[in-house]
Amino acid sequence: MYTLDQIRKSFNGSTSRADRSEIGQFLTPVAIAKFMSSMFEAAPRRVRILDPGAGTGVLFAACLETLISKADHPESIEVVAYETDSAVMPYLEETMERCRSLCVSGGIDFHGIIRAEDFVSAATTEINDPLFHIPGVRFTHAILNPPYKKMNSRTAMSKMLYSSGIEVANLYAVFVWLSMLLLEQGGQLVAITPRSFCNGPYFRKFRTTFMRMMSLKRIHLFESRKKAFGDDNVLQENVIYHAGRESQKPESILISSSGGLDFDKARLLAVPYSRVIHPRDRDMFVHLDANETEVCASERMECLGSSLGDLGLSVSTGRVVDFRAREHLRQTPQPGTVPLIYPCHFSDGFIKRSVEAGRKPNAIRLTAETSTLFVESGFYVLTKRFSSKEQRRRVMAAVFDPARFDASFVGFENHLNYYHEGGRCLQADLAKGLALYLNSTMVDRYFRLFSGHTQVNAADLRKMPYPTREQILRLGRAVDDAMPDQETIDVIMEKECPNHGK
Predict the structure, then answer these.
(1) What is the CATH number of the domain that holds 53?
(2) Confidence (pTM)
(3) Which of 111, 145, 451, 476 is the most exposed place for a label (fewest CB within 10 A)?
């Protein structure tokens, strides 16, 4: 009989990476499958396991092996595995037969079902059936590595899901959502998915529904985005999480992290539930405190009691979408144009006048057609919406100083966010102090707690805590014509918000 690793490797050897990417599914390494299975708590006497995107079956097989290895193993195990890829079916059947043999050897009743049908359609039909709401047999365990693909809102599947109250941005969230609906009360779910659901507006409905229905108990982080599915060259930043279908929330959530598949060396930290899911946060962002340094960052940010609303400030996305205004763009400033600011104009914490050697234009025509794209010239704080993985900070801020530009209006390109006061410019020291705060290491560490990707949305910035207006003005007086270096910024912030845990 083949081992689980041999089955997975055999399938990967007979298919191309492009084929696996096309359906958004990458088979789970056995080491990850076994680690995921170890997260499940004590099982009932009769177990029903759901694997909604089974692949070769490594996940449900690892779950079954973990259950039957215990002294108080279940009396019966039923597995329901969904899979639509005909190429993987022989391997899946081999795994199911392996599970049958293991249970027979251990005197455990076994029933395995392979459903060669689309899980989303089947599950949506089931939960919409009036009989579904009558108490009956549901699943005690769901273990899944769902496909990662963006959802097109115009497809029949999206419309079907929307009519069922399921609003999602990615197929992986659909699989998790439907799986938790199919769990019995007290049932458990373990999943490995991208980290993107933890924050941002696109996953808000999924996140709030998940946190209402489920009790989040453990999250595991990978320190390298290359390690979870390294042999498939998947660079998505993944997390593994365990949750139970119950209303009672735990006092703390166990956060663990590992460099790769060396789970026996994982670092563990119990974090209060209220620090991971802030009780007053209606968006229910998930803050992932992976180590004591980051917990300290979270605690330090608690000394900052202001929101953007308290400060009377707002943050918006730049209005100029360059490809839609291509005919109005100019490489150099000319009469009848206004400055157009891109991320490439950032320099030492301020916005430089132009980038002569760059490919981006430095100006845009001021016409009746383009006038709504601009704001009145004045002090603003800009942040980049996208950063590369190699950059030291996720949040990178710069001050737009009107004295450096001879213009009455300015345009901010769509790859930027800009802070303003009711649509108008900021006071000079307020802008400089806000930019210094945003460029601090403390902010960077805090931002990484809930954001696992390199995109910095305006919605994320609105969720941040901020210093008081008086503190920001005081910070601003420490900035002249250039932003201080990182060490100096952090020393200044240390005086405003001391790290008592050092």
Answers:
(1) 3.40.50.150
(2) 0.67
(3) 111
How far from chain centre, in Å, is Cα 213?
19
pLDDT band, residue 146 (cuts 50/70/90): very high
Q: What is the CA radius of gyration of the chain?
A: 26
224 plus 271 within the same structural domain:
yes
Domain that holds residue 468: 308-496
Nearest to 397, CA basis, from 324, 325, 323, 476: 476
Instruction: Give the end of a domain, one of 228, 262, 290.
Output: 290
What is the DSSP-derived secondary structure letter of residue 477? T
Query: Which tens digits make up the pLDDT trace of 186-195?
Result: 999 999 999 8
Q: What is the DSSP string of 113-133?
A: EEE-S-HHHHHHHHHHSGGGG
Report which of 431, 317, 436 is spatially closest to residue 379, judged by C-alpha positions.
Answer: 431
Closest CA to 475 of 435, 433, 438, 432: 433
SS3 190: strand
In the 3-class helix/strand/coil scheme, how is 356-417 assigned residue by residue?
CCCCCCCEEECCCCCHHHEEECCEEEEEECECCCCCCCCCCEEEECHHHCCCCEEEEECCEE
Burial class of 407 by CB neighbour count within 10 A (0 to 12, 13 to 18, 19+): middle
What are the CA-CA distances from residue 252 to residues 217, 275, 277, 417 (Å)?
8, 9, 10, 35
Give the model confidence (pLDDT) of 61-104 as tens digits: 999 999 999 989 999 999 999 999 998 999 999 999 999 999 99
Question: Is 226:201 a contact under the CB 8 Å cutoff?
Answer: no
Pairing of strands 215-222, 252-258: parallel
Domain holding 382: CATH number?
A: 3.90.220.20
